[in-house]
Design a protein that fits this description.
binds guanosine-5'-diphosphate, hydrolase, cytoplasm, 8-stranded mixed beta sheet, EC 3.6.5.4, 8 strands, nucleotide-binding, 11 helices, 13% strand, 48% helix, alpha/beta
């Protein structure tokens, strides 16, 4: 992820090396190169436009610095602006004063929600929490079973609609809202301090799916709603994120499949267009392929 973007930006900055003073033409040329690199990386057009506008404005007005030459100053500005579009500060989960903290996962089918649920449970368990996973994806065949397997790996219990679902192909029936409610009641009873609810996705955004997610959120009073998005979906990321932002008003974003070789535009667009922070990144199929998302580290990774 980001390899090509990273190479392009590094090459652009190389051209500024050794320059005593940057002319307007230097700044224009650099801005043009950065713009092209971002668009080729699939960053959404409005995000690129705003980003470039800010870079140019700041580079033109950059104060003469003793410590940094003009080229280094441009790199510094780009770095700061990248951190900004990635959401600024690291944002971790906010726990409810009165446990359990209820976390709901939402997103398209295949985004990586069920996989993430196990990883997040594992992460929180390692931090001393006692999570309960709740299986509310009653749409996708095997989603419940998959969550149960994830729970077993993370050594975290799973509340599922039919405890006895054993056949691989069986799709449990039931009302996902009722399952979510019962799951939270079970968490209270068994003194779990965190509940992670996996919900159903569809291949595309549709109103029924969105309504179901919104109904679950309202029924359980979720404290955090994490929008899970596959970073490989490119330009579609923005529309999908906006639809989920309107539909379920999520509190944070999880980017998945950052281990892939996609161009990374989704990662750079979603926080900016929704105004919601990226909180976690998933980087593989294993339980430990998961990290807290730090905008400053990600920006450094892109610019190094
Ligand atoms: P859901 O429909 O949103 O619950 O998606 P799943 O959790 O079932 O994930 C869909 C597919 O993507 C599965 O094959 C996962 O193993 C895979 N997957 C999930 N997260 C990642 C990731 O971070 N990296 C990679 N390479 N694959 C992932």
């Amino acid at each position: 992820m980001f390899n090509s973007l990273s190479d392009r930006l590094t090459a652009t900055f190389k051209n500024l090396r050794g320059k005593g003073k940057l002319t307007e033409a230097d700044i224009d040329g650099t801005a043009r190169e950065i713009r092209r690199a971002l668009l080729d990386a699939d960053v959404a057009v409005p995000v690129v436009r705003e980003f470039i506008g800010r870079i140019k404005e700041r580079a033109m007005g950059a104060e003469v610095s003793e410590a940094l030459n003009p080229g280094q100053q441009v790199v510094k500005i780009v770095n700061e602006e990248l951190v900004g579009i990635l959401g600024g500060q690291t944002r971790e989960l906010q726990f409810a004063k009165q446990p359990p903290t209820i976390i709901m996962l939402a997103g398209l089918q295949g985004a990586g929600k069920t996989t993430l649920a196990g990883k997040l449970a594992f992460h929180l368990k390692n931090k001393g929490h006692a999570p309960l996973l709740v299986a509310c994806d009653l749409q996708r065949p095997n989603a419940v079973r998959q969550l149960q397997v994830g729970g077993e790996r993370a050594n975290v219990p799973v509340y599922a609609p039919h405890p006895g679902v054993s056949s691989e192909a069986e799709v449990p029936t039931g009302d996902p809202v009722a399952v979510a409610r019962d799951g939270v009641a079970t968490a209270r009873e068994k003194l779990h301090d965190v509940v992670i609810i996996d919900t159903a996705g569809r291949l595309g955004v549709d109103s029924e799916l969105m309504q179901q997610a919104a109904d679950i959120k309202a029924a359980v009073g979720a404290h955090e709603t994490l929008f899970v998005i596959d970073a490989m979906i490119g330009q579609d990321a923005v529309n999908t994120a906006q639809a989920f932002n309107e539909g379920v008003d999520f509190t944070g974003v999880v980017l998945t499949k950052l281990d892939g070789d996609a161009r990374g535009g989704a990662a750079l667009s979603v926080a900016q267009v929704t105004g919601k922070p990226v909180m976690y990144a998933s980087t593989g199929e294993g339980l430990k392929d998961f990290e807290v998302f730090h905008p400053d580290r990600m920006a450094r990774r892109i610019l190094d």
